[in-house]
Specification:
The structure is a single chain. The protein is of the alpha+beta class. It has three domains: 21-71 and 109-237 and 402-453, 2-Layer Sandwich (BirA Bifunctional Protein, domain 2), CATH 3.30.930.10; 253-382, Alpha-Beta Complex (YbaK protein), CATH 3.90.960; 473-567, Anticodon-binding domain (Rossmann fold), CATH 3.40.50.800. The protein has 16 helices and 31 strands. The strands form eight sheets. Strands 3, 7, 8, 9, 10, 11, 12, 21 and 24 form a nine-stranded mixed sheet that branches. Strands 16-14-15-17-20 form a five-stranded mixed sheet. Strands 28-27-29-30-31 form a five-stranded mixed sheet, with helices on both faces. Strand 30 and strand 31 (551-554) form a beta hairpin. Helix 2 packs across helix 12 (445-455). The radius of gyration is 29 Å and the shape is globular. Bound molecules: adenosine-5'-triphosphate (ATP) and magnesium ion (MG). The site of adenosine-5'-triphosphate has 15 residues, from strand 8, strand 21, strand 24 and helix 12.
Length: 568
């Protein structure tokens, strides 16, 4: 490809709304352009890199035995009602109406479609296992689209869905995807690691997210360097000890705390109750009903864990009015002592705790000497707190660390949640009919592209891994008239490399060398071959790996040298 023939609109400065390095580079290197917030056009170079990633994904999915299909982006509302997600996923669904007022949703993912297909097409154990995948445009009405392709309203996802006869067989399919994901992200040239992930409302223990470490990532990951434990903060647990028990005996005592409405204020004189001897009481509304959450005063509630406990992602913190209606007091004086008719979910760390202080459900009063198991009716004990750095690892007790990361992929064991709802069953060997056991597996293809850039760059621009670079080689003749010696040699090397299957761009622009070199570095081609008068006079060209040193090479050896660099 010739530079003048394609469109590579590089920019000196990134538009002001680009906040993170990779977003700036996507725009500056002329890979994408914004149409609207969260909606982008891929320009020729961006598209080439994207297709490379798609191809890697395809090869590894095929290698793992998955089969490619293409499902519609336009999905009838009815199948979403059948799965129950018309309501639970409502916030992210793009809803459209056709001319006859029929409602459709634009696909954010495709469990409903594939399970409908499986219900019709899969009938016998002989047809299983099956793993269907597609690479297609997805739509999500993200409230805060940001960071370019990272969180877009329209993006490309690879989604796959496995169907198996049994739980054990489903685990085999899961493992295959897990291994394929590792290969995919390794081949894309990014550092990546799997972490245990939250299974939220669907439940079950099997879910991993594939993370690319990055300070700009939107996920907090807890990990242990000693034993390798790694989990999303939404799921992570630690070996932190329970609240130390003290002698039970003294009955509850109410005491006045005028104007004290925070954990922090109660730690001060005259009350002087340390945060770790306080019970924090939070009220949420789930399924239109209030629920009480109890965690220790010095802990933070983890809302992802709460979603799993209440069994719906549709919940919210109660308003002051709702709280008053439920408990007869305002935030700051709330507690669960003596509360009946409202579910109380208490964090495990409080189990067995006594001599605790909590609100008395009377403004300006607290209770002390509370023994949680004696004085509070707990509906369910659960893990609700957020792990913090330095806590002992749940597996090996060494101190845990925290880091930020980008979620590029997600593997998930679904069980029979969807197959039961859609009647996706198979006839077993013994003639009985059973629901297929499913798994689902996503990769954010466009997000992965950006994660590669976020991970592979320097002060001059992108430093593409060879596997996903839009072109592997950029030839930069410093004189471009057709009869110049530099251009003639450039054309020759271009033709020879192209014949060898190398992807080459020839910078035939009539620009100053400085401009050409800057652009080549900004776009990040892995290898640059520059041909200038001075080195030509010595019968040489210059070959420079991106981020490496320039080497003078005899012009006859240039092609072989480039090929050797590509083969590594
Ligand atoms: P997130 O937590 O980042 O919102 P998710 O957990 O909702 O993502 P999944 O449903 O697991 O996403 O989707 C599979 C993959 O699709 C994710 O791992 C991610 O790489 C990608 N993805 C999800 N939402 C977006 C988005 N708005 N823009 C770009 N990629 C996305
Ligand atoms: Mg996910």
């Amino acid at each position: 490809m010739r530079w003048t023939q394609t469109l590579i609109p590089t920019l000196k400065e990134a538009p002001s709304d680009a906040e993170i390095t990779s977003h700036k580079l996507l725009l500056r290197a002329g890979l994408i352009r914004k149409l609207a917030g969260g909606v982008y056009t891929f320009l020729p170079l961006g598209l080439r890199a994207l297709r490379k990633i798609e191809q890697i994904i395809r090869e590894e999915m095929n290698r793992a035995g998955a089969i490619e299909v293409l499902m519609p982006a336009l999905q009838p509302k009815e199948i979403w009602e059948q799965s129950g997600r018309a309501e639970t996923a409502s916030a992210v669904l793009f809803k459209v109406k056709d001319g006859s007022n029929r409602e459709w949703f634009l696909s954010p993912t495709a469990e409903e479609v594939i399970t409908t297909l499986a219900a019709n097409e899969i009938n016998s154990y002989r047809q299983l296992p099956k793993n269907f995948y597609q690479i297609s445009v997805k739509f999500r009405d993200e409230i805060r689209p940001r960071f370019g392709l990272m969180r877009a309203k329209e993006f490309i996802m690879k989604d796959a869905y496995s169907f198996d006869t049994t739980d054990d067989a489903s685990m085999v399919s899961y493992r295959k995807m897990y291994d394929a994901y590792k290969r995919i992200f390794d081949r894309c040239g990014v550092q990546n690691f799997p972490v245990e992930a939250d299974t939220g409302v669907i439940g079950g223990n099997y879910s991993h997210e594939f993370m690319v470490p990055a300070a700009t990532g939107e996920n907090d990951v807890v990990f242990c360097e000693a034993c390798g434990y790694a989990a999303n903060i939404e799921k992570a647990t630690s070996g932190i000890p329970k609240t130390a028990a003290r002698e039970i005996g003294a009955p509850i005592e109410k005491f006045a705390t005028p104007g004290v409405v925070t954990i922090e204020a109660l730690t001060k004189a005259p009350s002087s109750v340390p945060a770790n001897r306080q019970i924090k009481t939070l009220i949420y509304i789930a399924d239109s009903k209030p629920v009480i959450i109890l965690i220790r005063g010095d802990d933070q509630l983890n809302e992802a864990k709460l979603a799993g406990v209440v069994g719906t992602p549709v919940f919210r913190a109660a308003t002051a009015e709702e709280i008053f209606a439920a408990l007869g007091a305002h935030p700051g004086s709330l507690g669960a002592v003596g509360v009946k008719n409202i579910s109380v979910f208490a964090d495990e760390r409080l189990r067995g705790a006594n001599d605790m202080t909590t609100g008395a459900n009377e403004d300006g009063f607290h209770f002390k000497q509370v023994s949680i198991e004696r004085d509070i009716v707990v509906t369910k004990w659960c893990d609700l707190r957020t792990v913090t750095a330095g806590e002992p690892c749940v597996k090996c007790a060494k101190p845990l660390k925290l880091r930020r990361a980008i979620e590029v992929g997600h593997v998930f064991k679904l069980g029979t949640k969807y197959s039961e709802k859609f009647n996706a069953t198979y006839l077993d060997v013994d003639g009985s009919r059973k629901p297929c056991v499913m798994g689902c597996y996503g990769i954010g293809v466009t997000r992965t592209l950006q994660a590669v850039i976020e991970h592979c760059n320097d002060a001059d621009g992108i430093v593409w891994p060879l596997s996903v670079a839009p072109y592997q080689v950029c030839i930069t003749p410093l004189a471009v008239t057709a009869d110049s010696a530099a251009m003639k040699l450039a054309e020759k090397i271009y033709a020879e490399l192209t014949a060898q299957g190398v992807e080459v761009i020839l910078d035939d622009r009539d620009e100053r060398p400085g401009v050409k070199f800057k652009d080549a570095d900004l776009v990040g081609f892995p290898i640059r071959v520059s041909i200038g008068e001075k080195s030509l006079a010595k019968g040489e060209v210059e070959i420079k790996p991106r981020g490496g040193a320039v080497a003078a090479v005899k012009m006859d050896e240039a092609v072989a040298r480039v090929l050797a660099l590509i083969k590594g």
